[in-house]
Structure formats: structure tokens, C-alpha cells
Amino acid sequence: MNKLLSLSVLATTLLLSSCSNTPQEEPLAKVIDRGLKASTEQALLMAKDLEQQEGRLPKSIKDGKLETSDCYWWCSGFFPGELWYLYENNPTPELKKYAELFTGRLEKVQYVTNNHDVGFMLYCSYGNGYRLTQNPDYKNVLVTGAGSLSTRFNPMIKAIRSWDSTNNGKWQYPVIIDNMMNLELLTWASKATGDNRFHDIAVTHANTTMENHFRDDYSSYHVVSYDTITGKPHIKMTHQGYADESAWARGQAWAVYGYTMMARETGSPEYLAQAKHIARFLMNHPNMPADKVPYWDFNAPDIPNTPRDASAAAIMASALIELSQLDKSDEAKSYLDFAEQQVRSLSSPEYLAEKGTNCNFVLKHSTGHLPGNSEVDVPLSYADYYYVEALTRLKKIIE
What we know:
It contains 13 helices and 9 strands. The protein is mainly α. The two termini are about 30 Å apart.
């Protein structure tokens, strides 16, 4: 009997140790459940607060108060998408009601042709909604939106134009690394409609970006502007980072996520290799903090006394979790381990807001555009979205 008891204790110990790096650490399953519970509580408070404010969606905090946007702001799809992920984890009528309500506020976005972020706006909201409900109306919005996004593609330059701004004449055809994230709408639309044009645009844009956006160490510029006559880059710079040659943290996170996603969507070994190169750059960077939540720019001169960017950590964690499942090499576990550390940090009191605080956002300490003195050390809707996505992906793996 004692022998059986000893074996039972040993089995329990092994199970717990498999969920955490040290015996003192909270089991990973508990971290995930706690993070999802906190996110659900905050998201429902946010939804109820905005329910009667027609057409409004959460953006950030400004001057201590909740800042909202209409559907045309690039971040508009993140809160509805977060609600869909929370509904996926806890399918209650209340979560579904609010996911549908806030998704519906973006219906007009399907016709937008002056914004490259239609992919963010629609695929995070309507895309997750369609995946979970198979609502045919959602599919129609997504297909129309993919057509609208495709109008921004220039076959001579071989890329989707990001901004219509010329930055006072500096840029001719600016393409930003963030634009990789909008390609998922196109790859989905290609499969949903059988129209290879969407797939071809996504692949062409990804190839052009891979060729021109990256330095030898696999860090990425933020903006590459193309000459509209030759189709070649004429400016490479980092608009939202510390300096043109610096590694702006969120830009690097978009990059590793974008190429991981494209590797999944296409099966391309080249995209997988690119994602792995970027992941190595980030994971091994000497300026990556011990808690794995990056400073807003890896080359900021005032490190460590400079703001963090929890949004970059959330995006990166979600990407690395997926990369760990796509990569069949011995490195795969290192991506998952690193992402787990990021999720643990984001789920700690340092970053995870207490219920009813933080204007009902989930995460604290993100940075939007520090050089522009915009959204510095505040919550951001996309930090919450990718945090919940990372929790959801991690939960599926350990289950």
C-alpha cells in the first residue's frame, strides 16, 4: 500500500513539474485559466461600458480616461476578436452576444480601400466570428474586405501599399512590416473562394518584404518606401522606433508572427526559416529583459530606464507558440519555453490589471508610438487581443 502511495505521489510530482519550470512556479494550466478569467471579467466590463455608445470600440487610455475609436481606426477589430476568443474558451450566451454586437460595428470596413489594415480590422473580428459560428454573413463581409484590401496591391512594386501619406514628400510607396499581419485575410479568402489571386498577392507581398525589410541579423526596418518608377526601395527607416537602424520591438514581433502565419498558410519552408531566424534574433537579444517583456525598442539609449511594450510580448508569445508547433526541429521546444515565460510575466500583477482597474483593459504597460509621444506606457486593445490568443493557443497545446 505504501509503495502504491509512493508511486502516486511520484506521478503527481512529475505531472506538476511538467507544467512548470520549478516546483515553486504556479502550474501553467492554472496561469492560463487565471489569465482567461481575468480577461473575461475585464472584457465584459468593457463591453457593458460601451454597449450604449453606438459604434464605439476601445482603443487605449488618454489622460486617465478610456479612449475609444470608430470602426475606421486600425485597431477596431481587436476587441471583438478578443471577445470571440473568450467565447471560444467559455461559450456563454453573454460573451457571444457581445462578440456579435461589437463585430457588427465593423461591417462598413469591408468597403474600405484607403487602409491596409483591413486585414487586422476584419480578420480578427469577423474572421474569428466566422471560424466559430460559420455565419454566412460573416463570410460575405470577409470576402468583400479581401477584395478591398487587394486594391492596394501594386504588381510592379509587388507589395500592398501601407500608408497613403508621403511623410512630407519623403515616401513614394511606403510599406511597413506591420502589413505582414494583413495577409492572413487574403490567404483565408483564397481558400474560401478558390480565387488564387488573393493567395498570389499575399505570397508576392511576403516575398518582397522578406527581400527588402530585413538586415543581416534578421532584425527588420519599420518602413521601406519604394520608388514608383523603378519599383526598388529608395528609403529604409524606422518611423516608430528609436532610430532608423534600431530594432523597434513591436515591428520585430509583427515580423515573427507574420512569417510564422505565412509558413502555416502556405507550407513554405522559406517562410518557416525566416520566422525561425527572427525568433532567434529576439530570443537571444542581449537587451531582452529577464521577464521577456521587451523594451519598446531593443536599441533605446536609456535601457533599462525606458518603457516596456507588453503588446510586443503578447504578439511575440502568440507567434512563438504557433512556431513551436510548425517547426519539427530540436529548436521547437525553445520557442514554447520562451513564450511560456512571456505568458507567465504578462499574467503577473506587474502586467495583468486587477478587476475594474485600467479602464477595463487586461494588460498594462504597452507602448504605441513613443517618438510621437502617443500611447506611452498605457493599455492597448491589441495587447489584450494577442495575450488572449496566446493563452488560447497554449491551452490547446497542454490539453
